[in-house]
């Protein structure tokens, strides 16, 4: 009978006489069902009868012994007490935890000797099937495959650099919204029939002075009112105002356009609420496209969504140029925004998965600079076109040219990382041959690198018989990945919403449309350059923390000192806040793409980007009621910025790390202390929970 450990009994209290000791029952040791090694003896020293008061029951040690059904416990105990051989004749020596030949990687239907299949614990599984490798082993295999294909060689560098050019079309699309919806300076057209008979013969400025009231110290014409005269009196003076009756006169060109949707359908005064409605519709399209087409990237592939979005964007852009009414334009802008979102998201994810860790930031910043270039080119195209329909036609033509060239698999192949992560090595084989060095085309006559590539692909093909697709809803079962996505989405929401407040503070110093337009584009370029200089040197999390701190301080100072700070200080704080918002927004997108796993990277990044467009949609929503809720809007987002400053501290550091392939890999991205804890166990068949202790 084994001896009791020294800490099995607590000290007896003095003054009490316990029951006499009774013989203890010794339970036989049990076999660990996964490893086949004998466990520790579990001693139950509880007496047979119920103890009276004063008897101290011993505390046995907690030992991890899964409860299994044993038909013959005596024979099982005899088998356990025998010495375990160092190596088994039917199995190779024990290897690492994630190795396919390890006892931990047995198939779900396998049971230890003496146990019937399906009689073990639930986490062993009862369905027979092929053995699935662990996440670490699969990630190592994918890394070896990409390294055998030449690493980040010349072919992958050229494809990543070629993905910059479509960003020019994205810049044109993003910059078109403020250009098409900017209301020009306007006033009511004079109506001589409403004037007294003595004033109906007036022409030019005299007729304007007699018909339109003047406002403010500058004596500017009223944009929405006409003077009212008493009808019976021929020489009467005006005694009130009335709405416009003959339309409006616009100061053209506005933003380089002689004709825009605002001037064509008179979206001013009583119909001015339709302009923010159109802006909300376009941003809602971007939001829905990021969410749904992002999920499509994980189900159908990056290339399929990219090509389909280009086809839709080309057709919808041409249809916008032919819109016959404002409701038709509203619907087309909604659909066009969704198609552009899918095009942008698929391009971003595919580019990131092409790059190795040291160059992810460089190529992402390069794409952002090309997008700024498209934004800067748009006013020049507007000056050449001078009509919004022709401008939309030119934008659709650019998208069609992208479809003609980037629709080819040679310029935009399917992401091999996604193919390998979802278990499609046969499709990845053809793409990886193009990534290999020139001359390594035939795998039969190739070099040692080609043989290594064939071997790794064969191993992955044997491990993954069928493709495995995942949903973003599986983030509910993770411990850390959902939190990272929530924090980054919250940061993106704040940046999109608070940007409108900074732009509105520039209104007193806004002489024309071009000043805030080019200032925003220039600050976006400066933010990209700052990220390039600091993102790899300091890390993602410190730069994001610094940007959030600057964003919160600028917004709070603007709220507190609106009535006390001089004009140049308000302008400087607005510019600083805009710069920080662009930097935090770009870094949040990159951060999210690096922490979400490959199997749900499209949907995860789509949710983060969609949160940013949701924040941008809050500004036109406040404009629907005449900017009545602007102050509350700024207060809410400034408070959110302070809260986000605390949340950023919980994020991991993704600089220099490989992209996680599975949800288990993404759950391991934690801080230095938490990274040593085991990840959340999977409850699917064939997976084994981690044992703590």
Descriptive account of the structure:
It is built from 21 helices and 8 strands. With 693 residues, it is mainly alpha-helical. Among the domains are: 1-75, no CATH class; 186-251, no CATH class; 423-463, no CATH class; 470-675, Up-down Bundle (Growth Hormone, Chain: A), CATH 1.20.1250. The strands form 4 sheets. The protein has a two-stranded antiparallel ribbon with strand order 1-2. It is elongated and about 100 Å long. It starts with 24 loop residues before the first strand and ends in a 26-residue tail after the last helix. The relative contact order is 0.10. Residues 6-10, 29-57, 62-133, 438-447 and 672-693 have low confidence and may be disordered.
* Biggest sheet: strand arrangement: 1-2
Percentage beta strand: under 5%
- Class of one domain in CATH? Mainly Alpha
In sequence order, what are the helices and strands, one letter per element?
EEHHHHEHEEEEEHHHHHHHHHHHHHHHH
Shape: elongated
**SSE class:** mainly alpha
Tally of separate helices = 21
Largest sheet: 2 strands, antiparallel
Per the CATH scheme, the topology name of one domain is Growth Hormone, Chain: A
CATH superfamily label of one domain: MFS general substrate transporter like domains
Q: What CATH architecture of one domain do you see?
A: Up-down Bundle
Which helices and strands, and how do they pair?
Blueprint lengths: L24 E3 L14 E3 L28 H9 L53 H14 L5 H9 L3 H16 L4 E3 L16 H7 L2 E2 L4 E2 L3 E4 L11 E4 L4 E3 L10 H4 L9 H27 L1 H20 L4 H29 L5 H26 L2 H19 L9 H6 L3 H11 L12 H16 L17 H25 L8 H25 L1 H21 L6 H29 L5 H23 L6 H18 L15 H5 L26
Antiparallel strand pairs: 1-2, 3-8, 4-5, 6-7
Helix pairs in contact: 2-14, 4-10, 4-11, 7-8, 7-9, 7-19, 8-9, 8-11, 10-16, 13-14, 15-18, 15-19, 15-20, 16-17, 16-18, 17-18, 17-20, 18-19
